[in-house]
Fold:
Amino acid sequence: SAVISQKPSRDICQRGTSLTIQCQVDSQVTMMFWYRQQPGQSLTLIATANQGSEATYESGFVIDKFPISRPNLTFSTLTVSNMSPEDSSIYLCSVGQGGVADTQYFGPGTRLTVL
Amino acid sequence: AQKVTQAQTEISVVEKEDVTLDCVYETRDTTYYLFWYKQPPSGELVFLIRRNSFDEQNEISGRYSWNFQKSTSSFNFTITASQVVDSAVYFCALSEGYSGAGSYQLTFGKGTKLSVIP
Structure:
């Protein structure tokens, strides 16, 4: 399986600011995904990021709030914009090759606290 | 619609006991995949197993075993002789339903927090 890293691993931010989270994979992958895990909750998919195209957002998530970049097949960023305390969560990226049989592998996550 | 139910929110066992984590799913598709992931306190999700809807054979990997029963739409996970290192949140997930952009929706259950007491 791919080795996935995320930066930063954790951060504490002030309300109204923005944070960009990086996800780096050690091999080329077709699909990259961004999830949010609110405290004590399950994972919710924010968006799917394909290289060379706009990210596809799930219901309840918008590009203005969570802009995503996917400049190549090994890297993606997620920005959490104009943060509020409700954005305090773990943000995880995952990678896969697509398809119903695809196994997603996850990065270590970024723990975000918004004050 | 798809849904994954993990009815056990938290389980505590004493070390060396066996424990079973339940997972019940709902889907209208005939082709789908089921997964289990482990999330230790560090936060990273660790992939444990993938099973497709056409393979109902039970699987064993060391102290871990999985029981897939389509008749009851269940995919239960048993840890034999539990250890403290097994303490984590375990998620069951279902993949089916094309969600666009070349991907298939992976839906997670709410997770079961397992605490193994020494």
